């Protein structure tokens, strides 16, 4: 970085305890969080001087061996300076050994012109320095910078009470919301719903025109006035152009004199999003190099947290003082979010949604299992014979298992709630350069049940690919569940949020339900069935209007009980409960200006709201999968439209997607806004989204008074609106996969029916008779029947057909004499299979790829 420092005389600078009284004392404060009460944001620093809040001050460990003052900087950007206005700049600072630093108010970008650049000599005792100046710059891109480089030896710089008073009140933040016609900036499926929202004062119905890329009008219509939308406090009208089904790119919608961002209409619309939203998880991997060959050079980085200096974890990690006296190897897993903590409760839901999107393809008629198969993702394990989405989930399952308290220790079988830095690191912070000590935090019942649930789900899904791993997962799940029963109320402390998030939760009845459900679906055992059916969640309302998240897991349990094949006695009631929730969501969407099936309490938005929106989409998608009712599919897809730009801010909340995507996500490595040599978040990364709680200094300073759905700012400092997180991207990935599957159009059903009957069994196996009936009007010749085993079933042999098992999927081709099935005729075959655990009959059979009734 090149800095042109204009060195001012010492005049105006006073050292000592008391600040000079000045007429700027009551003037507007331009520095945010100058006393570090809100942590480190929005302050940033160069990688060679990592800083943290210590005893209420910001302290940086400054590396030695640099030449220039500006080789190490602590700074804050986006400072507004007004030409001709006078300012008072003050701060309190100290140094571990006497040093002279430069305290600057300057331009953040070339030519970095300084208004003040004061050589300031610091000592061990904190001293307050004050200087005044009159700005000669007019900018909103000013910077306060402490240039602390240039020393041979490392030292510690501490600063507090940084203030820059004067000028005008910082200008009110005005989001650029672009054209008032709001569409999904990515586009629409030819056979799917196509709806848009116009923000307008007009009360009479507006005419609209759909234009193709050449500007030719291809469709016209009239919008429906919707009135005031409380989420944005704006008046709206709705456009429905679902009737237009041609394919193409570069379409625009025009209404009320405004033209939307361009969008596509194509069946493959969501294919890239399906893989990019999953690639996010590879990017977030800890304990392995992120390879340029898979992600490109911008995103490649060395392994983080493999105990290579300066990293202090995660291979041999102690507990927080007093928590335990053993150490654990907890390498691997995914970093949670913009921070580099690893939290079992959040790892749980994210893993469940990756496993779940794969498991869905075994039962959902409109799904394409191959799209999630081996070789579909940019992961190191591609082409290992295991579907890549399962490889990605395994990366986290291995980590989660390592968090379990070893046998022989107090609380054996319980799971440590989390592992993270002892102090919060700031931004940017490359994982491999994090020098903080890492610590295990106490075990919790919630974490233990998260492991029990996902290990049990993993056990059934991995059975066809890796029996040893599957058995190990099931053992882990059983141990965890038993430990949770023995210690049912060990809660993470809400106060435990130094250096990492708390993820506290004192209601674990939903986690108990979830773990029991997954264990039941995997084993079929009565003890787990009883725990499921006796849980208050089994018949309670688990699908809230505000969606589910990391601390409300009963919905995931219910969705799996509704879809994964099992002998659950009240399975039909469970499936009906998903449909009735979906009916309610459809009604909410019908009343909403953005067709959004989301109604948070009091209309307020909250931390991570985008994932709750998408999770309501997940419930609707499952309702569609089990019923075929396209009203559910359409309401589900509206949640994807919303995150892709059809929203009050006209912002695509998914990096790299749409015309106006988020760029400055809160992330310690994708911290381009703070350090231009670092990348922005990779395509497919989802922002947390609107949060009317304004829980970070940037949001608090810039968004006061915002309408709930507009409480969002694309600034790296706004961690309460603009962070990424594994549990948010897992919701996006689930929905992207569902949406991509819808691009293939309506399945051709009603042409076949299958009867699958177990006709004999022995200790570890069974015999099945399968009858395929042609219910269509044409003969089927050269047929192929496929289905997926839900659990550990393994095909041994078959009669009257050739059957081959690959992974979970069995593909059957007829004996030569049975090649043709005439309309109304039935072809039969038998097979034998081995198994352990529950061996439920598959519920979805496809004849030549098309779903049959069963
Ligand atoms: O940077 C942190 C971010 O990754 C977390 O999501 C967020 C919530 O736990 O916290 C951020 O860190 C802030 C912390 O919560 C409070 N102190 C200030 C931290 C940022 O400087
Ligand atoms: O997603 C979490 C949200 O529900 C909480 O309100 C918030 C504050 O506790 O924390 C969120 O989780 C953050 C976690 O604490 C630390 N890593 C980043 C997570 C996403 O911001």
Low-confidence stretches: 1-22
Q: How many E-type strands?
A: 39
Which CATH class of the domain at 275-496? Answer: Mainly Alpha
Question: What proportion of the residues is helical, as a percent range?
Answer: 10-25%
Question: Structural class, judged by helices and strands?
Answer: alpha+beta
Can you tell me the CATH topology of the domain at 275-496? Glycosyltransferase
Arithmetic mean of pLDDT: 94
The proportion of strand residues reads 15-25%
Gyration radius from CA atoms, angstroms: 29 Å
Order of strands, main sheet, comes to 1-9-6-11-4-3
Report how far apart the termini are. 67 Å
Question: How can the largest sheet be summarized?
Answer: 6 strands, antiparallel
CATH architecture classification name of the domain at 275-496: Alpha/alpha barrel
- Principal-axes geometry comes out as globular
Description:
The chain has 854 residues and is of the alpha+beta class. Among the domains are: 146 residues, Jelly Rolls (Sandwich); 85 residues, Immunoglobulin-like; 222 residues, Alpha/alpha barrel (Glycosyltransferase); 100 residues, Sandwich (Immunoglobulin-like). It is 23% helix and 24% strand. The chain contains 15 helices and 39 strands. The strands form 10 sheets. A 6-stranded antiparallel beta sheet has the order 1-9-6-11-4-3, with no helix packed on it. Strands 13, 15, 16, 19, 20 and 21 form a 6-stranded mixed beta sheet that branches. It has a 5-stranded antiparallel beta sheet with strand order 2-5-10-7-8, with no helix packed on it. Strand 19 and strand 20 form a beta hairpin. Helix 10 packs across helix 11 and helix 11 packs parallel to helix 15. The longest helix has 20 residues. The N terminus is likely disordered. The structure holds ligand 9MR (2 copies). One ligand 9MR binds next to loops.
């Amino acid at each position: 970085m090149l800095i042109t420092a204009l060195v001012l005389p010492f005049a105006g600078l006073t050292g000592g305890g008391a600040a000079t009284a000045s007429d700027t004392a009551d003037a507007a404060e331009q520095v945010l969080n100058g006393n570090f009460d809100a942590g480190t944001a929005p302050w940033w620093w160069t990688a060679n001087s990592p800083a943290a809040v210590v005893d209420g001050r910001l302290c940086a460990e400054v590396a030695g061996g640099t030449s220039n003052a500006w080789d190490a900087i602590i700074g804050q950007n986006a400072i507004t300076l007004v030409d001709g206005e006078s300012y008072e700049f003050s701060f309190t600072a100290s140094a571990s050994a006497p040093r002279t630093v430069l305290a600057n108010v300057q331009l953040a970008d070339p030519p970095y012109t300084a208004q003040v650049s004061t050589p300031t000599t610091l000592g061990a005792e904190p001293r307050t320095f004050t200087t005044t100046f009159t700005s000669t710059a007019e900018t909103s891109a000013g910077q306060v910078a402490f240039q602390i480089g240039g020393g041979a030896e490392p030292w510690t710089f501490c600063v507090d009470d940084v203030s820059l008073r004067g000028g005008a009140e910082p200008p009110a933040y005005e989001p650029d919301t672009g054209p008032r016609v709001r569409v999904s900036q990515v586009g629409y499926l030819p056979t799917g719903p196509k709806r848009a929202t116009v923000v307008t004062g007009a009360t009479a119905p507006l005419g609209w025109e759909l234009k193709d890329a050449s500007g030719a009008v291809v469709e016209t219509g009239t919008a429906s006035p919707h009135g005031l939308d409380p989420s944005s406090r704006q008046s709206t009208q709705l456009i429905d152009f679902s009737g237009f089904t041609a394919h193409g790119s570069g379409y625009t919608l025009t209404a009320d004199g405004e033209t939307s961002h361009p969008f596509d209409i194509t069946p493959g619309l969501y294919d890239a999003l399906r893989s990019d939203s999953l690639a996010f998880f590879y990017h977030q991997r800890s304990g392995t190099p992120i390879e340029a060959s898979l992600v490109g050079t911008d995103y490649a980085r060395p392994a983080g947290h493999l105990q290579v200096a300066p990293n202090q974890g995660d291979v041999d990690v102690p507990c927080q003082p007093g928590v335990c006296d053993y150490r654990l190897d907890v390498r691997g897993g995914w970093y949670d979010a913009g921070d580099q903590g690893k939290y079992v409760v959040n790892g749980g839901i994210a893993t469940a949604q990756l496993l779940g999107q794969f498991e869905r393809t075994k039962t959902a008629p409109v799904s394409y299992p191959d799209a999630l198969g081996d070789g579909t993702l940019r992961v190191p394990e591609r082409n290992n014979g295991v579907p890549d989405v399962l490889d990605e989930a395994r990366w986290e399952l291995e980590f989660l298992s390592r968090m379990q308290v070893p046998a022989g220790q107090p609380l054996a079988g319980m799971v440590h709630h989390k592992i993270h830095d002892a102090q919060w690191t700031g931004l940017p912070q490359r994982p491999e350069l994090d020098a903080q000590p890492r610590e295990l935090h106490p075990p919790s019942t919630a974490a233990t049940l998260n492991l029990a649930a996902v290990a049990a789900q993993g056990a059934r899904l991995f059975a066809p690919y890796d029996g040893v791993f599957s058995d190990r997962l099931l053992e882990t799940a059983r141990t965890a569940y038993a430990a949770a029963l023995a210690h049912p109320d060990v809660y993470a402390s809400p106060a435990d949020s130094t250096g990492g998030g708390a993820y506290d939760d004192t209601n674990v009845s939903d986690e108990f339900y979830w773990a029991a459900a997954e264990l039941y679906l995997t084993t079929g055992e009565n003890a787990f069935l009883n725990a499921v059916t006796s849980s208050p969640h089994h018949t309670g309302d688990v699908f809230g209007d505000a969606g589910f998240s990391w601390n409300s897991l009963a919905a995931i349990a219910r969705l799996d009980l509704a879809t994964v094949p099992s002998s659950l006695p009240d399975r039909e009631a469970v499936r009906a409960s998903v449909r009735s929730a979906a009916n309610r969501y459809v009604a909410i969407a019908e009343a909403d200006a953005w067709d959004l099936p989301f109604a948070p309490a009091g209309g307020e938005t909250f931390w991570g709201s985008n994932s709750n929106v998408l999770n309501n989409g997940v419930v609707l998608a499952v309702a569609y999968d089990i019923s075929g009712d396209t009203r559910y599919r359409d309401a589900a897809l509206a949640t994807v439209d919303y995150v892709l730009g059809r929203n009050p801010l006209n912002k695509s909340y998914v990096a790299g997607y749409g015309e106006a995507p988020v760029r400055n996500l809160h992330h310690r490595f994708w911290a381009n806004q703070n350090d231009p040599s670092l990348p922005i978040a990779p395509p497919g990364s989802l922002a947390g989204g609107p949060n009317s709680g304004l829980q970070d200094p940037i949001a608090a300073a810039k968004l006061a008074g915002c309408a709930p759905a507009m409480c969002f700012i694309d600034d790296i400092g706004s961690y309460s609106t603009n962070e990424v997180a594994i549990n948010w991207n897992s919701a996006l990935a689930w929905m992207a996969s569902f949406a991509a599957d819808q691009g293939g159009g309506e399945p051709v059903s009603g042409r076949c029916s299958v009867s699958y009957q177990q006709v004999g069994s022995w200790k570890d196996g069974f015999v099945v008779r399968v009858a395929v009936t042609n219910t269509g009007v044409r003969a089927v010749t050269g047929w192929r029947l496929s289905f997926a085993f839900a659990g550990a079933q393994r095909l041994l042999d078959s009669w009257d057909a050739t059957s081959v098992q690959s992974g979970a999927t069995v593909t059957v081709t007829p004996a030569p004499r049975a090649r043709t099935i005439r309309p109304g005729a039935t072809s039969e075959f038998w097979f034998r299979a081995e198994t352990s655990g529950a061996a439920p009959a598959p519920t979805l059979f496809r004849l030549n790829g098309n779903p049959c009734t069963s």
